[in-house]
Amino acid sequence: MAGSRLGRPTWDGGRSSGDSPGDRFEDEGEEASAVNAKGDADRTAGVDGEARGTGGASGRVRYDHTGSVVLVTGGTRGLGAGIAGAFLAAGAEVVVCARRKPEPLPEGLTFVTADVRDAADVDRLVAEVEERYGRLDTVVNNAGGSPQALLAGTSPRLHARIVELNLIAPLLVAQRAHPLLATSGGSVIMIGSSSGTRPSPGTSAYGAAKAGLHHLAACLAAEWAPRVRVNTVVVGLAETEDSADHYGGPAGVARMGAAVPAGRMARPADVAEVCLWLAVPGYVTGAEILVHGGGEIPAWRRIASGHDG
Ligand SMILES: NC(=O)c1ccc[n+]([C@@H]2O[C@H](COP(=O)([O-])OP(=O)(O)OC[C@H]3O[C@@H](n4cnc5c(N)ncnc54)[C@H](OP(=O)(O)O)[C@@H]3O)[C@@H](O)[C@H]2O)c1
Asked: Is 247 a catalytic residue?
């Protein structure tokens, strides 16, 4: 029935192993982990009643998104794969898109080849979701990123491509998905970045595009309320399968983690958990949820402590 959807949080009072489904999806090899994640979701119903009263600080909330359809752009790697795996584990039908199909495709996911910068591709993507499932409840605009390059010497074409991927593409996907989301009473989740909230030397166009994305989400939240909610998850330093290469090996990853008050970078499961919550129907719209472990320890702390080399 149009307008009806599920998305129930349940309290798993200290019974989970600590890692969320998104972590398992990332860590154990995509195919096997998708199967495990599905199995866990099936078991949750049995565990919940018993666990409800146990509470405990280490408990996690488990979400039931059975009956809902979720589109995760760029859901084949990195944070997007974690988000897609978490929704799959929560019982949703999950469609991921990217320019290249992953091999093997994790079991349970539907894949559509699409470049989100291309309006015709986005139209075909949304049409395929509608044709296959007849509804769409949540769009996670995750595809994004940028190479590191100081502005001097970079080409106008590169700047345009970065802004296109990180700002125009999520706008297009949200716009084209809006009719389906309005029917289901669904929501859009933008994956933003701390780079859009503080100076981002070396990724200036990216930082500016992400700042624009955060603002776009707030505008759409106001434009589409109350039927469709639009929120942003502002991700800080994050650890994905590319991090070791990016930061010069495990020691570099550990050094980056030490720069975060939480003591480590965000993992895909941390971001996925917030997406699972935002996708539950509710009052929150136009919000920016910071998933940055407390931010980055400011340089003055190091200087004031006399440890600045
Ligand atoms: N990793 C971090 O440290 C970090 C921190 C803050 C925010 N973020 C944000 O989190 C999101 C995910 O980052 P990530 O590091 O997980 O990215 P990633 O590992 O580079 O994965 C990007 C995903 O997007 C897809 N993609 C890229 N360009 C696309 C296009 N034009 N059309 C369709 N799909 C496309 C990629 O697949 P194909 O290449 O096959 O298309 C891939 O599935 C991004 O929005 C990023 O800005 C990341």
From this structure: no
